Every structure is written in C-alpha cells, then in structure tokens.
C-alpha cells in the first residue's frame, strides 16, 4: 500500500508499505530517519516517541496507514520545529495542519541522510542543547524519545514543576538510568527559556 | 493483509459487514502490540482514525455520550467533572504517549479483565452503543463482558460510543501496581456514590475472568445506609458496616495466581480498596473534599 504524509515539514510518499507495518518502521527503514529508536515495539519504553499532528505518541504503535495525510515530527526535525515555533508562534505550537515545521527550511531540507541540515548549521533546539549541557546523554538510546516528549512538555507548560516533568516523561525509559540528569536538563531548558523572555 | 480506511461511520459499518473478521484499529495500543509480535495476523485492519465523530463527546442531561475513540488524555482534561471515576482511571493508564492514543472503545474491544476503564464504567453505570448495518443496540455494561477478553459484540458490530451516567455524587478509582506509571493493574476497584438514587455501585478489575460488580457488597451497603439513615444524616459510616462491605467485595472476586500477584493477595487488596474508596467518597459526600483525588 502507498502512504502519503508529512515528516518534519516535508511531504513524503512511502510505497510498498506492508499493511501491518508501524510508523516507526516506515520512518527508520523506508525513510532513512533512524533517530526514533526501536527498543521494545510495545509502547513500554517511549524511545520511538514522535509528534503526530502535534501529539506525542509511540510511533511503534501507530499503523503506517493511519498517518495518511497527517503530520509527523521526529527528533531529526526537532531543531527546525523548535526554531519555527520560536519565530512564528512564541509561547505555543503550530496547530496541526496549519503550517507544519518551518516551511522554507523544510523545503530546503533533505531527509536523507537524516538531520543533515541540523548538522550543517550545528543548530540544536534548546532542549537538545540542554540535554548536552546537563550531561543527560549516556548511551543515548532513550534520548530522541525524551527530547520529543520534553520539548512538547515545555511547549505546553513553560514552567513545569518536578512533578509535571516526571509525569510528562513517565513513558520514557532510560536503561542507563540517568534520570536525575534528564530532569536537570528539562529544568535547565525551562530556566533558559524564561531568561530569554 | 488489507488496510481499510473508511472516511465515514457509514463506510466503516459497511466495511465491517463486508469483512466481519476485520480487526478495527483505533489508538492501536493493543492491536499494534499483537501485530508487532506476530500474535495476530488479521486479513483486514479497519482504521477508525479518519472518522471524526468517534473522537467527540456530548454532555447530555443525564449521560455523557463518549465517542469510542476519544483518547484517555482528553477524558482526563475535559470530563473530570462529569466522569470523575473514569477520569481517575484514565490517568492510571500507561503513560502520556499511550493515553494520547488509547481509547475506551479500544479498552472495551479488548475487554481484558485488567482494563482500567471497566471498573469505572461499572461503578458509574454505562451502556455501550453498538452499531452495525442492521441497526443500533444499547448493551448494558453489566452484560458487555462475556469472558476473558470476550465481549458481547457481534462480528459485524462496531462500538460507536459509550453512554456513561454523569456523576451525581463522588466517585473514586484505586489500582494496585508496582509503580505509578506504565503498570497493568494487579487489581483495581471503582466506586461511585449515587445520592440521587441512594445507591452505591462498584467495579472490580483484574480479580475475576471479567470485570465485575461486587453486587452483594452493594446490596448490603445500600440496605445498611438506608436503614441507618446515613444519606440524610451524612454521619460517618459505622466501621463494622465498612468492614462487612469490604469483606463482601473481596468475596466477589474470583482471581487467579499469576506473575503480577496471587489470588489471595488480590482478594485481600480488593477488600482494602473497597474500604478506602468508600471512605474517600463518603468523606467527600459529607462535605470534606477529596472527590476527584485518586490514589494508585
Ligand atoms: C505500554 C502499554 C501500557 C498499557 N497500560 C494499560 C493500562 O495501564 N491500563 C489499561 O487499561 N490498558 C493499558 N494498555 C492497553 C491499551 O492501551 C488499552 O486497552 C486501550 O484502551 C486500547 O485502546 P486503543 O484505542 O489503543 O485500542 P486498539 O488497540 O486500537 O483496539 C483494541 C481492541 O478493540 C477493538 N476496537 C477498537 N475500537 C473499536 C470500536 N470502535 N468498535 C469495536 N471494536 C473496537 C480492536 O479491534 C481491538 O480488538 C496498555 C498498552 C500498552 C501498549
Ligand atoms: S519502541 Fe515504541 S515504545 Fe518502545
Ligand atoms: S542514556 Fe542510555 S538509555 Fe538513556
């Protein structure tokens, strides 16, 4: 079957998709976007977290056919997505279908190899920078899912309490168990955002 | 495998009639696990995501008509006042990512004894609106669960919505698990006070082959509250009454030993949760707050 959808602001057509295939598989194996990790394929770990029409979901549990015509943001597009949000919708996010990620950037953007533009410019989203600065990355396997989930939390709730952070990240497991540093990173990103306002 | 993508409810019903073995997929949080692990290879998947009305709800005078695919996170956010028991139960489901996709329609479709919506639905009082090309019928929630992971749906039927009684009094939900997030219930208990009819209703999860009400416990308590004039006096419930209620609730269980807990632990825990949820709801009926605060 064929599936058309938007990934990180770029229209994409996937062909010969098996009907039982997950969005995660399509992203990783058909689109060359291996940022979303496959660790459990049963919704337990959150390392495959992406935004589907703005909503954080486990991409391993979304059937590929269900994303027809919809918008997906993965960790590869997070820097662009955050930059667009900061420019166009300060203090909130895009309405699903309204503009996707930064359209100009997205048009120039090549999905394969993944994250090329981010790497070229070296620009990271604030949450990515905070993870690095706080030392919240060990093996890094859980990081992409955590970044997507944490970014969405801060979009919704720019000044989260510790309880809010724990709740928002409760679906993301870190096998290296670096949870304290991860909490630090989210607090750091929130504090930095407040400073710049 | 075929992937059916009906764009409307009528098309979905027609597709289900044409392919009665088609597996509906809503949030996919049960279906996709089975497919990813090769536990299920349906010949057809029937996607419900494109049918907008399934993710809507209507608040009527007596009921909330909850679309089958409304995700748990929306119930927590928007229906806390009308459906406090279900909102509390929703909050204990898995993780934010799962709650953003998983639905009560899917919970009913799976009909696992451990599904967290069930005790809340049983306690509040609910009917499942099942529809097929042949027509619509309302299935009382008590008659919906027919066996372990079996429900009363006919092969050509889909769940359109669940009609849940709006709370007319405090409701509580309690769940035993090893941690707060991402945990399948060892057992769970829902309780709703219905001051309008002067009745108490309950729901037990994960402690019998199907979700069940503790009917004997309800009857005993209803009689005791009536006789003692508790609904009018709003006096503290006599400890012996609460104790007997808990014992009868534990007796309503027919649990098994499994990796999550032993049968005797489950029976014991259900008794404790019955007593606690009664205490919490009654305190709030007496005017001492704590109506929507839950505990896991
Ligand atoms: C990591 C993880 C943790 C979980 N934790 C919990 C938990 O704590 N508590 C809990 O209760 N559940 C839990 N679940 C199970 C699951 O999330 C719930 O059962 C959820 O309610 C399923 O809803 P869904 O929309 O995703 O259903 P789907 O997976 O889409 O469907 C489930 C079943 O219902 C059928 N179905 C769906 N919609 C309809 C309809 N409208 N009409 C007829 N049949 C229909 C499907 O064919 C399928 O058989 C968990 C799942 C995962 C992956
Ligand atoms: S791979 Fe999707 S939740 Fe673990
Ligand atoms: S850093 Fe290794 S799993 Fe989290």
TrEMBL record, chain A:
Q: Which organism is it from?
A: Streptomyces gelaticus
Q: Looking at the Swiss-Prot or TrEMBL record, what is one Pfam family this protein matches?
A: Fer2
Question: What are the protein's UniProt keywords?
Answer: 2Fe-2S, Iron, Iron-sulfur, Metal-binding, Oxidoreductase
How is this protein named in the record? Oxidoreductase
Question: What InterPro entries does UniProt report for this protein, alphabetically?
Answer: 2Fe-2S-bd (IPR002888), 2Fe-2S-bd_dom_sf (IPR036884), 2Fe-2S_ferredoxin-like_sf (IPR036010), 2Fe-2S_ferredoxin-type (IPR001041), 2Fe2S_fd_BS (IPR006058), Beta-grasp_dom_sf (IPR012675), Diverse_Oxidoreductases (IPR051452)
Q: Which residues form the signal peptide?
A: none
UniProt cross-references to Gene3D superfamilies, sorted A to Z: 3.10.20.30, [2Fe-2S]-binding domain
The 2Fe-2S ferredoxin-type domain covers 1-78
UniProtKB/TrEMBL annotation, chain B:
Answer whether the UniProt record assigns the keyword Acetylation to this protein: no
Coiled-coil features, chain-numbered ranges:
none
**Which key words tag this protein in UniProt?**
FAD, Flavoprotein, Oxidoreductase
Q: Where is the FAD-binding PCMH-type domain?
A: 1-169
SUPFAM superfamilies for the chain = CO dehydrogenase flavoprotein C-terminal domain-like, FAD-binding/transporter-associated domain-like
Read off the PROSITE patterns from this record: FAD_PCMH (PS51387)
Specify whether Flavoprotein is a keyword of the entry: yes
Q: What is this protein called?
A: Carbon monoxide dehydrogenase
Its lineage reads: Bacteria, Bacillati, Actinomycetota, Actinomycetes, Kitasatosporales
